[in-house]
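Tip: read the tokens left to right.
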């Protein structure tokens, strides 16, 4: 059996291992605990990180928020398309979310390195649940308007900005360094299980109860995530600036600058961020136009759109399992570049597909490649970042949401002029060519392990 728990050493800290301050009090699950049904699975190395209580609670919370996120991929796009019948506004409703990510991501990352991450995560999840509830109420009362969708998109983006770096950094706090790749892989597994089931569930709820039913379910998932997070221990962390000095002694501005300097000076982190940014700008935005493909090109409606995203999730799940099991043994540089290149070319083929069955098969391949542009990159960034910088490096990683929303606006605009199929094909091809250029211009990127 492959070893999924190989010890990671941060190249940025020499031989100093990045141990979480709370690791000393985290104990493996015992038969007397309430998770007795998981005992058999925990003996497998593929589930090694789940032996740690704190990570297990984070994992359950990730399962709930993942369902909400992927249901929203279907629900928000379908709602704005119902209200406006505009492919341009499909891009705009995503594009407007770029503003909070652009303005607040550096602050959120610095806050995650300076203050209790649990509180930051709790508040963000609770506010998300309340916002989903409010939209559901507006839909059920017949008062929903396009501007409600836009305002809620901005507010949700604001709280998610603070949620994402805190949760990502807490994963590294919850497990010892030898389990970090396994933990991130398991997070990707549960996120992609949600990717496989969330869109299909949203499509079914929309077909039966309308978009209000889907938003109600999303609110419930976020409230459940809040309950899991409440059970986490409050880690007593002493944040430093990376040189042994207290981080609170420096201003937020200085802290942000130090995070950017580290991310730029560390070659592996820099290359990984470039991969995710290019993929987010040119390839991933094709999902913005899935309502157009589902309704107008393939003729399968909201349930069909949900099935397309489910197929993508199935492929992504396979890649995530591979990372969880043998992530440390993979040639991660080659997989990042090659996977994203294939991603772009498959999206080009998807753009020209007139058959739903072929499109479903292509979405499975897309999912296989998508993990290389997200979970695999995140694994590399966390593995090569010391603990005191993880909040800030992950905040920069999540700035890919800004780039994604810019790409969504761009693909929406191109679609309104040239049509959805041409817009997707051109941008997907450009993304694949960008990966080929990186492969040729940055030989060290191929050597990342």
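Filled-in amino acids:
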């Amino acid at each position: 059996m492959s070893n999924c728990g190989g010890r990671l050493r941060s190249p940025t800290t020499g031989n100093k291992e990045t141990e979480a301050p709370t690791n000393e009090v985290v104990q493996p699950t015992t038969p007397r605990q309430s998770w007795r049904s998981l005992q058999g699975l925990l003996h497998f190395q593929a589930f090694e990180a789940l032996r740690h209580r704190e990570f297990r609670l984070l994992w359950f919370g990730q399962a709930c928020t993942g369902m909400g996120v992927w249901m929203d991929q279907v629900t928000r796009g379908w709602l704005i398309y119902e209200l406006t019948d505009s492919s341009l506004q499909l891009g705009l409703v995503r594009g407007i979310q770029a503003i909070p990510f652009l303005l607040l991501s550096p602050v959120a990352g610095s806050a995650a390195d300076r203050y209790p991450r649990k509180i930051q995560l709790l508040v963000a999840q609770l506010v998300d649940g309340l916002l989903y509830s409010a939209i559901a109420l507006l839909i059920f009362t017949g008062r929903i308007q396009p501007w409600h969708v836009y305002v809620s998109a901005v507010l949700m983006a604001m709280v998610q900005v603070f949620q994402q770096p805190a949760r990502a950094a807490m994963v590294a706090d919850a497990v010892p360094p030898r389990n970090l790749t396994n933990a991130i892989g398991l997070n990707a597994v549960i996120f992609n299980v949600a990717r496989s089931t969330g869109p299909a569930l949203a499509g079914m709820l929309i077909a039966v109860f309308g978009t209000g039913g889907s938003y109600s379910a999303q609110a419930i998932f976020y409230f459940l995530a809040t309950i899991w997070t409440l059970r986490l221990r409050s880690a007593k962390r002493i944040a430093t600036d990376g040189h042994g000095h207290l981080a609170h002694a420096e201003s937020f501005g200085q802290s942000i600058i130090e995070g950017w300097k580290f991310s730029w000076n560390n070659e592996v982190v820099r290359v990984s961020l470039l991969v995710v940014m290019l993929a987010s700008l040119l390839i991933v935005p094709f999902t913005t136009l899935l309502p157009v493909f589902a309704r107008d090109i393939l003729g399968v409606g909201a349930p069909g759109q949900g099935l397309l995203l489910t197929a993508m999730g199935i492929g992504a799940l396979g890649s995530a399992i591979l990372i969880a099991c043998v992530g440390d043994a993979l040639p991660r540089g080659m997989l990042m570049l090659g996977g994203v290149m294939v991603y772009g070319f498959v999206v080009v083929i998807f753009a020209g597909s007139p058959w739903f069955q072929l499109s479903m098969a292509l979405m499975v391949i897309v999912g296989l490649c998508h993990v290389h542009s997200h979970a695999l990159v995140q694994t590399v960034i966390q593995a090569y970042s010391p603990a005191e910088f993880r909040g800030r490096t992950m905040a920069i990683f999540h700035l890919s949401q800004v780039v994604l929303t810019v790409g969504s606006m761009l693909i929406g605009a191109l679609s309104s002029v040239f049509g959805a199929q041409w817009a997707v094909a051109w941008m997907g091809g450009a993304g694949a060519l960008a990966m080929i250029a990186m492969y040729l211009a940055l030989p060290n990127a191929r050597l990342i392990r």
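The longest helix spans residues 53-84. Residues 1-32, 238-247 have pLDDT under 50 and may be disordered.
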